Amino acid sequence: MITQEHEDTQEGAGSAPARPEDNDGYVLASVVLAFIGVVSGLVPFTEQVSFACGAVAALCGAFGYIRTTSAVALAGMVLGLVAVVVGAVGADSADVVDREFNHRIERTNAPCRPGAGYSCE
Questions:
Q1: Considering only CA atoms, which of 106, 49, 60 is closest in space to residue 83?
Q2: Residue 1 needs a FRET pair 20 to 30 A away by CA distance; which of 15, 23, 56, 96 works?
């Protein structure tokens, strides 16, 4: 006669031990990187960080969604794409500001031309 304890060990002997989902790393990485990307996109002069984090987050989110089809992976992927857009818009805005700044510096260093209510002194 087999006891209950012995019966449980025989059933579990051939099966692999239960372990957490293997693909949660991709999902977690996509959400964390997407959050970092969006927040850094709102800080001036960190557009490259936003763009890079967003791109990696979108890839990790896509890998995680393919393997787990979880809503969190989809959210990480979408937020990653938002971070890429924020980074690209921020980089363009920084370029416009840089050009305007350089234009004003050049205009300030230009030789004085009297007229239009200004005097050279």
A1: 49
A2: 15
